[in-house]
Design brief:
This protein has a 6-stranded parallel beta sheet with strand order 3-2-1-4-5-6, sandwiched between helices. The termini are close together. It is of the alpha/beta class. It has 2 domains: about 70 residues, no CATH class; about 170 residues, Rossmann fold, CATH 3.40.50. Helix 6 links the parallel strand 4 and strand 5. The longest helix is centred in the C-terminal third of the chain and has 29 residues. It is about 60% helix and about 10% strand. It is elongated, with a radius of gyration of 21 Å.
Length: about 260
């Protein structure tokens, strides 16, 4: 066996068994875990209600990246729940897709959300829009559309770069309430400064589980946290052993 693979194998097996155990309990109906309150996600329904009262649309931006981008996948799960809420309240939802490759999937996510709420006739195919695969063309299209439609609520969840502040400022000038979320470390300060509510880092990945309260989704978040606690424990143990000059013991275990 290659050096260091033994420990990796044990870690992966333990994590897999933990996930299987938690998911099994969730499927049996046990609700052993809750996700702490996340104000930014609670504000999504508030923002949709505001748009309904003002008879103005909700804007949703899923960020950049293709299907290999974890933040886009997390954003798609949130989009599904947002679309269900807008369908429930009969509020117009505009989704701007960054790449042509993900456009049909985004369109189908919104369509299925409306169908699940019994509002298939309210789905407007043209409100799921693609402007350009080129960054600046996409950004200019979004900013122009925000002013044209006078959006009431702007939701930005996904992987963003320098363009995030452009969208946030345009939505602010249009008078929109804003909820933003990203795991891009360089953009988090801008989201905190420009948005009314911000999801920071892992809060975005927990969003779908939080909004749906689905026990299986909640269980996957719990399993991930267990893995993080284990790694954090190893770091703490390494620091302790290093302070007493016995770090070699931990190295032997990790290199097994």
């Amino acid at each position: 066996m290659k050096e260091g693979m033994g420990f990796d194998l044990v870690f992966v097996v333990l994590l897999t068994l933990s996930v299987a155990y938690i998911l099994n309990r969730a499927k049996q109906g046990h609700k052993d875990w809750d996700i702490r309150r996340i104000p930014g996600l609670d504000a999504i329904e508030e923002g949709i209600g505001r748009a309904t009262e003002m008879n103005r649309p909700v804007f949703y931006l899923p960020g950049s990246g293709g299907f290999e981008e974890p933040q886009l996948l997390a954003s798609m799960a949130v989009l599904s729940e947002v679309a269900k809420m807008t369908a429930r309240y009969d509020t117009r939802l505009i989704v701007c897709v960054p790449y042509s490759g993900v456009y049909p999937i985004m369109q189908e996510i919104v369509r299925q959300a409306y169908v699940s709420e019994g509002k298939a006739d309210s789905f407007r195919q043209d409100d799921v829009r693609w402007f350009s695969d080129h960054y600046f063309g996409y950004a200019l299209g979004i900013v122009g559309l925000m002013f044209k439609e006078q959006v009431a609520t702007n939701i930005m969840i996904g992987n963003f770069a320098f363009d995030a502040l452009m969208y946030a400022e345009a939505a602010n000038q249009a008078g929109a309430i804003q909820v933003g979320g990203t795991a891009a470390i360089t953009q988090i300060p801008f989201f905190v400064a420009a948005c009314d509510y911000a999801l920071i880092g892992d809060e975005m990945y927990a969003a779908a589980a939080y909004l749906t309260k689905d026990p299986v989704r909640v269980a996957t978040i719990v399993a991930e946290d267990w893995g993080k606690f284990f790694v954090a424990g190893l770091i703490a143990l390494g620091a302790l052993l290093n302070s007493v000059g016995a770090v070699g013991l931990l190295n032997n275990i990790l290199n097994w």
